[in-house]
Specification:
Blueprint lengths: L1 E6 L5 E7 L2 E8 L4 H12 L6 E7 L5 H18 L3 E4 L1 H8 L4 E7 L2 E6 L2 E5 L12 E2 L1 H5 L1 H6 L16 H7 L18 H5 L1
Parallel strand pairs: 1-4, 4-5, 6-9
Antiparallel strand pairs: 1-2, 2-3, 6-7, 7-8
Helix pairs in contact: 3-6
């Protein structure tokens, strides 16, 4: 099984080409490059596009624009290539890359996306109730390092690999493939444009 996976929910977009659990290639760039990154992955790996059996996309939560770009790219590719799609939470991918960690994604507006009682939620960083020594990962953990560390969190150095929702983890977590239009982004609040209207 050859899978193309990508996540565009955070400031660092990731893409990976994975065959039967083996990562053939992976990139980190920006959401606007996701299709170029996919093309580069095929070219560098030597895999043929005709071998592709499914697409996995990060469903967030995260940036509204980034999520829309990623889901639209996944739907477009899936429809054009007649492939099934699976959606995987960006938060789940972060946890997969740092076992036992609390995922913390920068939500803008001085807020974060995280898990509260196992469910995706929007919170202000100072509202998080953390056990002493809780490992926090993600771009929100980096941005709000001081606040979270004051609350007892442990946060890896800024450039640490665990802060990225790696597409290889999306591919590993994907279970239910189906029609492209069945995959929906996870929005935890209304967009700024709608809020200001």
């Amino acid at each position: 099984m050859l899978t193309l996976a990508f996540d565009t929910a955070t400031s660092a977009a990731t893409a990976a080409l994975v065959r039967d659990g083996e990562v053939l290639g992976e990139t980190v760039s920006r959401a606007v490059r996701v299709l170029e990154d996919a093309d580069d992955l095929f070219r560098k790996s030597g895999a043929a596009r005709a071998e592709l059996t499914g697409i996995v996309v990060g469903t967030g939560p995260g940036s509204f624009t980034g999520l829309r770009m990623g889901v639209a790219a996944a739907r477009g590719l899936a429809l054009a290539l007649e492939l099934p799609v699976a959606g995987v939470s960006t938060l789940a991918a972060l946890v997969a890359g740092a076992d036992g960690a609390l995922p913390v994604v920068d939500a803008g507006r001085r807020e974060i996306f995280t898990l509260v009682d196992g469910e995706p939620a929007v919170r202000e960083p100072q509202e998080l109730e953390l056990e002493l020594g809780t490992l926090c990962v993600g771009d929100g953990a980096v941005r709000y390092r001081t606040v979270l560390e004051e609350r007892g969190a442990r946060i890896p150095p800024d450039g640490d690999e665990r802060h990225l929702p790696r597409a290889r983890f999306h591919a590993a977590l994907a279970r239910e493939f189906g029609p492209a239009d069945a995959v929906e982004p996870l929005y935890l609040r209304i967009p700024d444009a709608e809020k200001n209207a």
